[in-house]
Amino acid sequence: MLLSPALRVFVVVVGLCFFGTCAVAQEIEGTLKEVPFQNLSDRGLTVLGDAAMSIHPTDWKHAETTNFVYHFFHDFIAAPVSVEAEFYYRVISKDLEKDTTQWERKCHIFIFETDEDWKEFQKRGALDPWTGGIHSQGSLFIQRNPERKFKGSTLGHEVTHLVIGRFYGSGVPLWLNEGYAEYSASRCYAAFNRARGYAARPLSRPVPADLYLPADKLASLMTYPQDVAQVGAFYTESERLVRFLEKTDKRGFGVFLEAMSKGNRFETALNKGFAARYINTDALDHEFKPYATQSGVVD
Fold first, then answer.
1. Is the pTM of this model over 0.85?
2. Domain containing 2: what range?
3. Whether residue 66 is found in the same domain as residue 22
4. For residue 196, is it within any domain?
5. pLDDT at residue 264 is higher than 70
6. Which of 1, 44, 184, 220 could form an SS bridge with 160, CB 3.0 to 4.6 Å?
7. 83 with 90: CB under 8 angstroms?
8. Is residue 192 part of a domain?
């Protein structure tokens, strides 16, 4: 489907604002051409991919762009997703200073539309009931309901997981993976909407004081909290800690992230990235707790 003139202009604006050149915009701009599944450059599906395709199996359509393969039901839903996905992928990779040009395999994005189909996919994929999107083995699964005007940051969150997985491997601990995905997605989504003329700012919720965990205890969590009510606090504090560390020293955060991905303990990685600022986790908590529980807008 040919992108509308407004969307084509928007893509150019995004490219100019964030990359300083029209080259990237021109690469994304144009058509999202539907192709038969057998003509896709990458047809490998994961177990979850097979589960997705088993829902209305004859109705799926397919297309691809530079970094992604798309599986969808309607092209007017998939075309905007393709613009966002390429935008997020490049912005996140640039923020992490990772070169994406040598990565040849494409990520598959499965786009569901209705709540009923998404619930069925959750059931067939044995997903947690609160899951709004998921990255698994290099594939992304999201819902885009055409009746909802604002689509949220789920796509940016899952693309962030993809980038982290590609360039840091599976060693990044849960809190850091989710925290960086939340932080990055909120910034990307706000930037994407500002380019469309909305007065958008990144969102960051405070951690309820009674649910705050010392940083080393947060970092020790290997799984999501058992209590669903505490899952939100886990995401919120993880995002706040990533935001806090990157704002403290962006280069130091890069060293910290690399060390964590290689299996370093939290305090060891903290010492490598922020030794001049925090001699131990108690020193970190002294500054971080007030920031984590602070209401209102934070930088």
1. no
2. 1-29
3. no
4. no
5. yes
6. 184
7. no
8. no
- Is 166 within 8 Å of 137 (Cβ atoms)? no
Instruction: Tell me how many domains the chain contains.
Output: 3
Assess whether 265 and 208 both reside in one domain. Answer: yes
Using alpha carbons only, what angle is made at residue 134 by residues 217 and 155, rounded to the nearest 5 degrees? 105
Closest CA to 49 of 114, 121, 105: 121
Q: Cβ(35)–Cβ(73) under 8 Å?
A: no
Using CA atoms, how far apart are residues 89 and 170, in angstroms rounded to an integer? 18
CA nearest neighbour of 154 among 208, 85, 209: 85
**Strands 68-72 vs 133-136: parallel, antiparallel or unpaired:** unpaired
Short-list 110, 112, 99, 176, CA closest to 137: 110
Confidence category of residue 28, pLDDT binned at 50, 70, 90: very low
Nearest to 200 by CA among 161, 156, 233, 164: 156
pLDDT tens for 265-293 read: 999 999 999 998 998 999 999 999 999 99
Instruction: Answer yes or no: do 141 and 117 share one domain.
Output: yes
- To 10 degrees, what angle do helices 75-95 and 174-194 make? 120
Whether 117 is in a domain gets the answer yes
- Res. 53: pLDDT tops 60: yes
**Geometric angle at alpha carbon 154, from 153 and 155, rounded to 5°:** 95
Query: What is residue 72's three-state secondary structure?
Result: strand
8 Å CB contact between 129 and 38:
no
pLDDT for 299: 54
Q: How far apart are CA 130 and CA 195, in angstroms?
A: 30
Q: Are residues 113 and 124 in the same domain?
A: yes
Q: Is residue 283 part of a domain?
A: yes
CATH of residue 136's domain is 3.40.30.160
State which H helix or E strand residue 78 sits in. Answer: helix 75-95
Angle, to 10 degrees, between the axis of helix 174-194 and the axis of helix 5-19?
120
**Does residue 274 share a domain with residue 165?**
no
